Amino acid sequence: MDRLIVYPANEEQMLALQAVLETMKIPFEQKEAAHPGHVIDGLIKSSKEVEEGKSEPYTGIRDMLDPK
């Protein structure tokens, strides 16, 4: 059987989904997201920048703090 993965945007949506699933006697498990949404968004943005050749190699913290 196929599975669904849903991403409720807020607590209200989460509670509504849980109520529907419980009413329909559909088993479910709740897991905490591995990473917050803003972290995932940053990773996606960074990956796109790499694909577009807009990235620079990391050479060390000193170069980042004292650019030439």
Chain-wise SSE layout:
Elements: H1 11-23, H2 37-51, H3 61-65
For the sheet with most strands, the description reads:
none
Order of helices and strands: HHH
User: Gap between N and C termini, in Å?
Assistant: 58 Å
Estimate the global geometry from the Cα principal axes: elongated
Please bin the fraction of helical residues.
Answer: 40-55%
Number of helices: 3
Unreliable residue runs: none
Number of domains: 1
What's the overall average pLDDT, rounded?
Answer: 86
Taking all Cα atoms into account, the compactness measure Rg is 20 Å
How much of the residues is beta strand, in percent? under 5%
Overall structural class, as computed from helix and strand content, comes to mainly alpha
How many β strands by DSSP?
Answer: 0
Region (Disordered): 44-68
Biased composition (Basic and acidic residues): 46-55
InterPro entries: Uncharacterised_MJ1172 (IPR020271)
Pfam families: DUF2683
Give your account of this protein's structure.
Residues 46-55 have a biased composition (Basic and acidic residues). Residues 44-68 are annotated as: Disordered. InterPro entries: Uncharacterised_MJ1172. Pfam families: DUF2683 (PF10884). The protein is mainly α. The protein has one domain (11-65). It has three helices and no strands. The longest helix has 15 residues, at 37-51. It starts with 10 loop residues before the first helix and ends with a helix.
